[in-house]
Amino acid sequence: RFGNVYLARLKKNHFIVALKVLFKSQIEKAGLEHQLRREVEIQAHLRHPNILRLYNYFYDSTRIYLILEFAPRGELYNLLQRSGPLDEQHTATIMEELAEALTYCHNNKVIHRDIKPENLLLGLMGEVKIADFGWSVHAPSLRRQTMCGTLDYLPPEIVEGRTYDEKVDLWCVGVLCYELLVGRPPFESPSQSETQRRILQVDVTFPPSMPEGAQDLVSKLLRYQPSQRLPLAQVLEHPWLKAHSRRVLPHSAQKAS
């Protein structure tokens, strides 16, 4: 929206990166200077195989340039648009990778707040890369009150304007799991007010095609009370996920470097 992304190759070693070019005038007009600064500060310090690397940045009088890891398979959103719902193996693999990455974020006091298919890229082997930290926040106390994120993925505490913590990301993981398997988010409705009502009532309907194990996982993540949501450590140990995930990264690469 505020710039373009180009494929670039470093002269010294021919290493391929994505070069994101942002226009200062557009960012200033939208009042997003602080948000961009925060995004750069957070992403530049994160080191995890399932988080897109921000290698460096520079700027001139009119533009800001972000040097990012190249994810050759593009957005998860585009994959869903092309192929429709994913199978159990693909979905469970994404859930495991995402849970590992978010565990790392939370351990570093970072709340993402906007997990959705558009913000997840796919690496060379199809592995997930959390790519957009525009709504992320480094909160040492892990407590916030800002309204943010995408409506279909907003948890009840944000819809109601209550104080929230890192458990907002658990809700988003549940919504994502449902969308990957069904092809649409669970609270999607014709109007915003109806979507908000369904979120607040946790009005979820599981289609017969959705596997029982996945239903169990999603139902344990989509809880009105944040304290009742399944912790990430237990997500990783969930029987459905363990039975179907085919994570491509070797065990030694699963930890942050």
Description:
It is an enzyme of class 2 (transferase). Keywords: ATP-binding, Cell cycle, Cell division, Kinase, Mitosis, Nucleotide-binding, Serine/threonine-protein kinase, Transferase. There is a cross-link at residue 116 (Glycyl lysine isopeptide (Lys-Gly) (interchain with G-Cter in SUMO2)). This is non-specific serine/threonine protein kinase. It is found in: Cytoplasm, Cytoskeleton, Spindle. It is globular and about 55 Å long. It is 37% helix and 15% strand. A four-stranded antiparallel beta sheet has the order 1-2-4-3. It has a two-stranded antiparallel ribbon with strand order 5-8. It has a two-stranded antiparallel sheet with strand order 6-7. With 257 residues, the protein is α+β, with helices and mostly antiparallel strands. Strand 1 (3-9) and strand 2 (16-23) form a beta hairpin. The chain contains ten helices and eight strands.
Please report the total strand number as a whole number. Answer: 8
The geometry reads as: globular
* Mean pLDDT metric: 88
- Pattern of helices and strands: EEHHEEHHEEEEHHHHHH
Q: What radius of gyration results from the CA coordinates?
A: 18 Å
SSE class: alpha+beta
| Termini gap | 32 Å
Determine the fraction of residues in helical runs and give it as a percent range: 25-40%
The largest beta-sheet arranges its strands as 1-2-4-3
The description of the largest β-sheet is: 4 strands, antiparallel
